[in-house]
Structure formats: C-alpha cells, structure tokens
Amino acid sequence: IDASRLEFAKKCGATHTLLVGRDDSEEGVATRVSDILGAMPDRTVECSGAQFAVNLAVHATKPGGQVVIIGHGPTSVSFPVVQTVAKEIEIKGSFRYVNTWPTVIEMLSCGKIDVKPLVTHRYRLEQTLEAFEMAKSGQGVKVMINCGQ
Length: 149
Hints:
Strands 1-2-3 form a three-stranded parallel sheet, covered by helices on one side. A two-stranded parallel ribbon has the order 4-5. 38% of the residues lie in helices and 17% in strands. The chain starts with a helix and ends with a strand. The chain is globular and about 55 Å long. The mean pLDDT is 89. It has 149 residues and is an alpha/beta fold. The chain has helices spanning 3-11, 26-37, 51-60, 81-86, 101-109, 128-137, and strands at 43-46, 66-70, 90-94, 119-124, 142-146. It has six helices and five strands, in the order ααβαβαβαβαβ. GO terms for molecular function: L-iditol 2-dehydrogenase (NAD+) activity; metal ion binding. One of its GO terms (biological process) is sorbitol catabolic process. Belongs to the zinc-containing alcohol dehydrogenase family. Keywords: Metal-binding, Oxidoreductase, Zinc. Its cofactor is Zn(2+).
C-alpha cells in the first residue's frame, strides 16, 4: 500500500513488488501475485499481521502450500477457513525466529546480505521521542536509538 516502501524493497534486492490499493479484493490481488510470479507460490510468508494480508496469503498460496505468519499482529485475526481447508494449506507461526540466528549470522559474515540500508534513521538517547514519532509515522524502515552516547 506504500509505493515508497516498494521502491526501497527494490533497492534492497526485491525482484517482484506489487502495489495494493485500499479497494482491491484479496482474490484480485492473489491473481495479480500469480501473474507476476508465473504461478501461485508454494510458500507465502506474511509479516504484517494485517487482516487483509493474512487472508491474501491463503488466497494466493497454491493448494497443498504453506503459509507462515511471522511476528505479532493483532490479538485475534480470522482466516478464510473453508478455503484453507479446501486447498489443504498448512499454516505455521513464528514469533521468536527459533534456530534462525546462526543462518543469519553466517549470511551477514560472508556478505550475502547487507542489513545496513534497513536502518534508515538514527537518534541519540535524548531524541527518543523524535525517534518514536518517526517510527510511528511509517517513514522509516528501522529506527535506531543510540543509548551509548
């Protein structure tokens, strides 16, 4: 829903992006996802927790596929249960990224990934309120507060 974030994703190496409008249907966006990728994805990773995105994950994923929900969204989110069951989609959740740190550390160490561009704003401790306002505004990707100086 944010063209500037999609541009940022492209700069960080995303090969496919899709701008979703507020009036778009889950089914319509799922069709566009399939068109862009050339097929429905085997696995869909949903990281926002937004109701629309959770439903979209089910609609977009191929039958027999897997939807992984990462992070923490609202306390309660509904699923299109009939479609989930009919398509025999496996739903998995991940909150603390168990067993992923060794892989990430290795990828960082050998230069396979560069996370530095993700920190878009840096603040001193006395600028904490400004830092939180920036994070709340959605303009930053990752906002860092330096507590050491």
